[in-house]
Design a protein that fits this description.
alpha+beta, Endonuclease I-creI, single chain, four-stranded antiparallel beta sheet, 434 Repressor (Amino-terminal Domain)
Length: 329
């Protein structure tokens, strides 16, 4: 069996290896082939034997689903065999170049490696931080716009309004857990997906109160250890609002005059989460209101000013928007 890439994916693959400080000589050492042969693989002169490709991917901890390799039988040059190989790949990994295909590729890659016990295939080691404000803020981010699968931690942000914030989230993950997440923009969608593939991280987050699967059906709420500590509650609320909240203007026409007032709002389908957010704001001496049984609002200019002073934001778009309404002078 051999592995082939498109030119773009081949360049991406070897660039990622270089970024991980894995050069041609290191690849030659772990695969047992010559540097000249590695150079030919890099130039696309020859396809890569699948066993060597798996060794490289595992040593570098690269998700092969993200680079769309095409695995072919040794007689791949036979046209009919090529069609069969592509059909099998499509069935196993999904459509080429799609987020679903990459997800299936990552899962299949993990399942193929999880039973092996040598050093290359051991689970990714993560740092497990003590409970602190940064960790509480990250859990707020997951509550707002994140989630856990069996193998991955995923946060989704808007690629237009939240690009700068997505970089903050990626750096926060690296700082907390000592793992580098991948960032990808979904084709034809205005969103950036931040992903860490780590079973150990999923387990650790679940132990600290993060839900896996459908959060609403499981009565989504802020973990108790956060609610019981004022500084953790503030940091967690900041993470929730930065990902899932909004600043907007509510306008009314009275006697042909238009009046507009800034509003702070957090919408959630979970009554437990709404109640906890409301409780945190009350404890901090704000005057929140629950509207339409679905959103928690701050409706006075002074409350919103105080929110940015006391709780703050790590997402520049919220501060910028409130400033456009005359706030935070």
């Amino acid at each position: 069996m051999r592995v082939s890439f498109s030119n773009k994916d081949r360049i991406q693959f070897f660039t990622e290896l270089q970024q991980k400080n894995i050069g041609l000589r290191q690849i030659a050492e772990i695969t047992g082939v010559s540097v000249r042969t590695i150079s030919d693989w890099k130039r696309g002169k020859y396809t890569i034997p699948s066993q060597h490709f798996e060794t490289i991917v595992s040593a570098a901890q690269i998700d092969q689903g993200s680079i769309n390799p095409l695995v072919m039988k040794d007689w791949w040059h036979n046209g009919e065999a090529g069609k069969k190989g592509a059909a099998i790949r499509m069935q196993k990994y999904g459509s080429l170049g799609t987020s679903e295909g990459r997800r299936l590729g990552g899962i299949n890659s993990y399942l193929s490696r999880k039973g092996k016990m040598d050093g290359i295939f051991t689970p990714k080691i993560i740092r497990k931080p003590v409970k602190n404000k940064l960790f509480a803020e990250f859990i707020g981010i997951l509550i707002g716009d994140g989630g856990l699968t069996q193998y991955q931690v995923v946060v989704t942000t808007n690629s237009v309004d939240d690009y700068e914030y997505s970089l903050f989230v990626a750096k926060l993950i690296e700082r907390l857990f000592d793992v580098k997440p991948s960032l990808s923009k979904r084709k034809n969608q205005n969103c950036i997906t931040i992903v860490v593939s780590s079973v150990e991280l999923v387990k650790f987050l679940k132990l600290n109160g993060v839900l896996q699967g459908d959060k609403i059906r499981q009565n989504l709420d802020i973990p108790r250890w956060i609610l019981e500590d004022r500084k953790y509650a503030i940091a967690c609320l900041r993470g929730i609002f930065d990902t899932d909240g909004c600043i907007f203007q509510e306008c009314h026409a009275i006697k042909q005059k238009r009046y507009c007032y800034p509003r702070w709002a957090l919408v959630s389908a979970s009554p437990y989460l709404r109640a906890s957010i409301h409780e945190i704001l009350i404890d901090l001496e704000f005057c929140p209101k629950i509207r339409n049984n679905r959103s928690v609002n701050l409706e006075s200019f002074s409350d919103i000013q105080e929110y940015f002073r006391v709780i703050g934001t790590s997402n520049p778009k919220h501060l910028s928007r409130f400033r456009s309404f005359g706030g935070v002078g």
